[in-house]
Amino acid sequence: MSDWPSEPPRRPAPAAFHTAAYVTLAGADWLASADPCPESVHARWASCPEAPSTLPCGTVFDVINAPALFGRDLVDRLWTAGPGSGPVATHRGRILLFAEPGTARRLPALLGWEEWSGSVPPLLCHGPGDAVTVPPLFPQRPPQPDPPHTPLTPHSTQDLAASRWLVAPDVRHPWLPGPGALLWACIRAARRATGVATAAPDGPVATTARDTPDTPADTVTTRTAPTLTPPL
Fold it and tell me: pTM of the full predicted structure?
């Protein structure tokens, strides 16, 4: 049996929940600080602010890369019954959750001890030595149809539309979930997915994350969640 605590991890009380739709100047400074030469990152953004960028992981942040459906449920668990999330992006049909450094190494080990880990789809955990593609700083312009027979380029309309922020960084030092918070959310999301899959055809869902015995109703905190409805 899992001995994971029934009460969800709490975010520090003074912190605020931000769901900005675009990256602010402070958020851009935070992202650029992950690169050994932040000035060159700012220069690239100044010349082409609507292009995705590649940034290294492991020092300023780690990134947990999840399949789209599970990743969206994972973010929902973090916001509706947990401590919230840091920046979240979508890229090429995957959900990128920015986490505190060290999470990429510890989360797989923690999941390995959990009885529900078999219901968690394979997660790509990016840490030291890895790099991820982050969305453009600003929302994309309305997509324009490409001319017929135009080959895709790295920054074509279709490619850019596949990368966007769901929760954009907007402060210089954003709060980032650690391995404990993400483990809690993974297990709750896996339990919910299993409950939906085993629901009777004409009956209610057998089990959900909010009505399992180890999640008392008084531990659920109402929060304003980011909008995750646009299609990938």
Answer: 0.70
SS (H, E, C) the chain: CCCCCCCCCCCCCCCCCCCECCCCHHHHHHHHCCCCCHHHHHHHHHHCCCCCEEEECCCCCEEEEEEHHHHHHHHHHHHHCCCCCCCEEEECCEEEEEECCCHHHHHHHHHHCCCCHHHCCCCEEECCCCEEEECCCCCCCCCCCCCCCCCCCCCCHHHHHCEEEEEECCCCCCCCCCHHHHHHHHHHHHHHHHHHHCCCCCCCCCCCCCCCCCCCHHHCCCCCCCCCCCCC
Give 149-164 pLDDT, tens digit per residue: 444 333 444 444 478 9
